Amino acid sequence: EVQLVESGGGLVKPGGSLRLSCAASGFTFSTYIFNWVRQAPGKGLEWVSSIGTLIRNTYYAHSVKGRFIISRDNAKNSLYLQMNSLIAEDTAIYYCARQDEEGFDIWGPGTMVSVSS
Amino acid sequence: QSVLTQPPSASGTPGQRVTISCSGSSPNIGSHNVCWYQHLPGASPKLLLYRNDQRPSGVPDRFSGSKSGTSASLAISGLRSEDEADYYCAAWDDSLSGRLFGGGTKLTVL
To answer: What is the average pLDDT across A91-103?
Structure first.
């Protein structure tokens, strides 16, 4: 079965760090672009970051640039998001999503990140 | 405030046809294809359309899309109660070097 499963969410204090993981299975991980997308409580979807099949091709939303780092380990079929200097506005459900034909065709169930003192 | 503008809400009765608009600009919709996503409460978003009007396998042909210039639209015909969800358009933006989502449209089936 083709699936993505996120992990690593939780409660963290402002200024803290968290590392999200996304485990992929059922397809050839290395051949796809991946993205992180978040949804803050009561808000819409917000694209966070993407990483190409060539690991050096990374992109970030302005709201997280300089604080978040996206990475992937093709040998482990895993995607990561290192989140530093977290602020309250980063509180959201974080989804990893596979990109195919320009659309995000496979999504994980999401992991909740709460930033609060 | 999203650079892709959608109406916050839309509604229709079962069997009706509903359209949802997505207005952008030259660096995004004007230069790139649009995707549409359906987000049901408590579930993960689902890809409805890619490349403006292409349906992934399994998406009913009741869902259709179009794009003209810097705007796109999603049409849902034969509206059903299970279509009640939030709908988002998305496109790459050259000026931001990032992907944009519209603000989302909450569809209510009356």
So the answer is: 94
